[in-house]
């Protein structure tokens, strides 16, 4: 797509409308397909549920038929010990059961004509079976399971290979159980379970429900299912395991109406078989069921994309044809900016909005050409004036230098042509201050005033100098006309002023604050009403006068310098250290609690005592007496605070020197005149 089209409003609106239409069509198609998918899935779930329930009901009917046959046979038993349980005597029961037996209430099986024990029931095993005991104790028919070994019922969830279903019917005489008539049926994938293990209904595309298993009420598998085509046995087993976990979480319901779970891609149905409390588990692949809908969704998406691509191509061709005059107008404007053509030549003629835009730009170009001519004449006059000026002069448009004189170029170390076009901010030595300075200039000019300020400027070679800058508008009230800067080098004056300012507040010998500077620092603290704990130390040197008397003032000065260095190095950069005169020093510790102040004062005393000055073969050293006073709001002024610290220092002198003393409450009261 040509670059000029990417930002076109007409193109964006047209493509947006086309995109909305396609998206709406795709969304409606998707919603319809989703509704169809939900309806299909609900229908299939219902059919699968009905199929599982139908199979479970068929199994239940077969069980009832066998139980009823056994009940009818029990009514014919007169003498249990002589009752013939052979298949020849009862062919109907022989068809329904794999074996028939008669036992007394203690579980002893009456021998059959061939003296063989009932199928899979070892001698004496009946008396240990809960199902048999329930039939005897409650005198009611029952269907229960017996393992092939007659002992272990198997663990829940495990396949019960060779499981036997035992039907027991009590033989009653005078309301008491005289004997138990039983039928044994081997469970498998044929016979009794024939209808259950068959594949379910086919919904097309190979979507056939599969039997996962038939289990008892405890989850023991009586009959194993077969994996559906394309489904591994492990996947079927995992599906059954997850469904049984949910089943147990719901209390292991044996529901004849069936219970449905959705397990990922599988729909699992559990239908209960009343009576023996068995459960038939079936599964159905949801992915196979919705496959036709996925094909339909993909086909709809391809049609939508194809339609969108075709309409987009037609639209782009049409827009390209309609926008060709605009491309010519663009090239003409670029030529105007480059100066390749005169302002009144080469403008395209077109109809409609593009034609009106071309005419408007033509008029604007002519007006700009006239304005540029006026400015050129003005600049020529300015250049003649600026060339003769002894100050650095520069003409700026916006924030860029447009014209500079020779003196400005000399001050900054540039060639005059190299400065033209540079942003003004590069001339300032402090890049972080540039925005503030330029903002201050603009602020002053907006109020109709000229700007005057002193700033550090950067030369091309990397050095800097102090300059006085004067800025004013070419035409007041018309910032677009530009502004004029004048610049002079005032480095010498600034350095002299700074030296005088420093000398007024600092001690020339030690470089510390002098009395005036220290008192100003104390006054700023007091006037600021800081609530942080702050300490004042007054330090008077011990044994300093003998050094002056014996070694002379140069030695004394060296000792004072050593003490000053020891004090400065022993406190924070934010603390104030001053020489009040002679051998008296002071330290202001802001934000320092009393305990810390006392500890620091002691360390400063040790540092002063440790100061050594080698002099004419001797090592000079002094001691110190230190008075400490914490600021108290009752003091009210710096003078009273200083008096309290002086009193503490005097107390240190009087107690034997080389000590630190703190102003007490009594001393404070003395320092505060009533």
From TrEMBL:
GO terms for molecular function: catalytic activity. The chain crosses the membrane at residues 12-33. Keywords: Membrane, Transmembrane, Transmembrane helix. Residues 532-665 form the GGDEF domain. Pfam families: GGDEF. The keyword Membrane applies. This is Diguanylate cyclase. It comes from Ideonella dechloratans.
